[in-house]
Every structure is written in structure tokens, then in C-alpha cells.
Specification:
By secondary structure, this protein is mostly helical. 62% of the residues lie in helices and 0% in strands.
Length: 180
């Protein structure tokens, strides 16, 4: 049975294998800032919290620093996913240089992200508008970030909006017939 660090190493090594060179699995490369990397960085951060492995924290920090230095992609639901990990990194390190990026992205979520008629976060992605659509992915990729950003930067309005989004998504994504 593998320990947490072995699992983290396998995930990071797999993501390092793809170089973002136009292959079908470009989105699985650490060279990219998209939802797979957001999920991976969140998981790696949780491993760090469990193990206290400073080497892993340094790898996470290096990934974020590299992307921030070269510039982040356009904003949408999928590219918001890595922001959750950045918020956790900010909370763990206290490095103020992360706060402006977190704040600007959360402000875009609040005021720039297209919304449905009831104010739900429309599932805008890198290649599709998904007009008037609520997807459960949005809860992880955007709402968790918005809530954590609100906690980290003491913005109650962001936390309240994240709660509203969860309730609205539940309203439409919950099947009353079978309770799922």
C-alpha cells in the first residue's frame, strides 16, 4: 500500500510527463492552467496538510509561481479551478503577493462571470459557453474557491455568494424522485 507521498509523487510525475506539445493529453500537463491541474494542486495541497512535507509544499509553490510569472490564461469556470489551491497556498504561507491575484479572480467571478436568469454561475469553459446551464463541476471549480477566497481575504460577500451558488445548484441538480 502506498503512502501519501508516494501517491503525490505518482500524480506529479504523470503530470510532468506531458509537455503541452499539442498531443491529445495537453490538458494533463503541468504546463497548463486548467481544471485537471486545479484538481491535482488541491489534492497535493491536502497531502501537504496531512504530511507536513515541506518538499511537496515547495513543488506546489514553484508550480504556482511559474504560472503567475508567465501569466494566467483567460478566465472561465475551468481555469478558475487552480485558484482554490492558490488560496490555500496563500493561507499557508501568508505571502501577500498572492492576494491581488486571488482578489482579482474572485472579483471577476462575482462581476464578470456570465450568470443564468436566477444568478447562477453559468458553466462557461475554455471552448463552450453553455448558456443558461448549471453544472455540478462549477461547485468545485469556482464556488469552493470563492468561499475560501472570502475566508482568506475576509470578504463575507464572496462567502455568501458561494453559499447561494451551492443552494441554487442543489435546487436544479438534486433529483427529488430518488433523493440523489
Amino acid at each position: 500500500m502506498m503512502n501519501y507521498r508516494e501517491i503525490a509523487d505518482r500524480v506529479l510525475n504523470r503530470l510532468k510527463e506531458s509537455k503541452g506539445d499539442g498531443r491529445w493529453d495537453d490538458h494533463l500537463s503541468l504546463a497548463t492552467w486548467e481544471w485537471p491541474q486545479g484538481v491535482a494542486m488541491y489534492a497535493m495541497f491536502k497531502v501537504y496538510e496531512t504530511t507536513g512535507d515541506e518538499k511537496l509544499l515547495a513543488e506546489i509553490k514553484a508550480w504556482y509561481d511559474g504560472h503567475l510569472e508567465k501569466g494566467l490564461p483567460g478566465r472561465n469556470i475551468n481555469t478558475t479551478a487552480p485558484m482554490l489551491g492558490l488560496t490555500l497556498l496563500y493561507e499557508a504561507t501568508g505571502e501577500e503577493r498572492y492576494a491581488p491575484c486571488i482578489s482579482a479572480w474572485a472579483d471577476w467571478v462575482m462581476h464578470g462571470l456570465p450568470r443564468t436568469q436566477e444568478g447562477g454561475f453559468q458553466h462557461l469553459t475554455s471552448d463552450c459557453v453553455n448558456e443558461e446551464q448549471l453544472w455540478d463541476d462549477t461547485l468545485f471549480m469556482t464556488c469552493l474557491f470563492l468561499f475560501r477566497a472570502g475566508k482568506a481575504l475576509q470578504r463575507q460577500d464572496w462567502q455568501d455568494e458561494a453559499r447561494y451558488q451551492f443552494l441554487l445548484h442543489i435546487k436544479y441538480l438534486h433529483c427529488t424522485g430518488n433523493g440523489r
